Amino acid sequence: MSFLNKAFGLDPKKHNVRTEVVAGITTFLTMAYILAVNPNIFGALDMPRGSVFTATALAAIVGTLVMAFYAKKPFGLAPGMGLNAFFVFTVCLGMGHTWQFALTAVLIEGIIFVIMTVTKLRSWLLQAIPGTLKKAIGAGIGLFIAFIGLQNAGIIVNSDATLVTLGDITHGPALLGLIGLVITAGLVMAKVRGGILIGILVTAALGLIIKDPATGAAITTLPTAVVSLPDSVGPIFCKFVPFKEIFSIDMLIVVFTFLFIDMFDTMGTLIGVCQGTELGEKENIDGLDKMFMADAVATCAGACFGTSTTTTYVESASGVGAGGRTGLTAFSVGGCFALALFFSPIFLAIPGAATAPALVIVGVMMMHSIKVIHWEDYAKSIPAFLTVILMPLAYSISDGILIGVIAYVITHAISGKFKDISITMWILAALFVCKYIFI
Predict the structure, then answer these.
(1) Which of 16, 49, 100, 213 is the most exposed place for a label (fewest CB within 10 A)?
(2) CA distances from 99 to 43, 293, 303 (A)
(3) How much is the pLDDT for 283?
(4) Residue 282: which pLDDT band, with cuts at 50, 70 and 90?
(5) Computed over its alpha carbons, how large is the radius of gyration of the chain?
(6) Is the pLDDT reported for residue 206 higher than 90?
(7) How does DSSP assign 363-410, residue by residue?
(8) Domain spans of the chain?
(9) Taking Cα atoms as reference points, which of 1, 122, 6, 10 lies closest to residue 74?
């Protein structure tokens, strides 16, 4: 047991090996949906789905192992929801950059995150951004993710008259997506462990009997194998842009947005999961810098493998709720992801319509932060509302954040609440205004 204590912080007087392992398996089951969702999202960029699957699993393995051995905490990490959407739909499809450009931004963000964690600059920036905007960002990303899910299933489609409209929900992928949403919602409400993952698998199975009207074929195709060696990450490994392309306003904005979302998402997750347990109290979590370092190292590794920012998952709460308290829980999560590498045919056979319900449910989970916004204080609620609503409507997480920061400074200045505007916020607002005027 001395080895377990040294390696994972497991104290035999306080912790139980079986409980820690079961907690790790529980956490994996609740976050394994990312193995099916991430390849589908990155498929919009024509990146090899098999390679993206492998990169997703490897990034999760690296992140959880650093969390296990260095931070010795029971949290699972993987490429983050919202961050992957920003990568694909904003940076690449929205701003017109290549996925190599976006991967470079993720790597730079990870390196900066490492530096900020070591130098304590992270704490300074966290304190400079108003809590209202932090909460609004989480909710806005939730709406954006849900919107993408509804589009992937064809439940929401483009319309010349109204921009978007309801699709044909009585046939094909849209029908499958709605059925899957009902199933997944029921599982989540019943608090079934791994409910989201089970919902994806059941929905994909139903896709074998529901046909796509456009092709006449079943929406889901059976995989040619159940177990196989993982695809190589070679096609997307360390595919970064030349050094000269790094120095641009677009790169600065993209890196800052990645860093901004990752930092506050991780902080909120750690505080929320640890609160009420012996792991730590609000805003005072033991070993927080080590947990952030695990996040930063995993992000750098994920960028090299070929995937978006890796972050701590709020689904780790399921493992903590099951009794996980040490790094052995995180180690167990990493072991499960390593095993999943060899089941790629199953995950890659899952169609977008089957993962859409997961995106909607995750979006619902991210909306909880909106309840603490002071809606009666318009100086705070107007910028918060703009942040939330612009992310899905402008199809851009970054625009939601940038407009939200500008609006916060303007509304507080008009209200005479200058003491609530930090120098950092003034500088950021000025930079963002210049971005819209000159770029």
Answers:
(1) 213
(2) 11, 25, 11
(3) 46
(4) very low
(5) 21
(6) yes
(7) HHHHGGGGGGS-TT-HHHHHHHHHHHHHHHHTT-HHHHHHHHHHHHHH
(8) 12-368
(9) 10
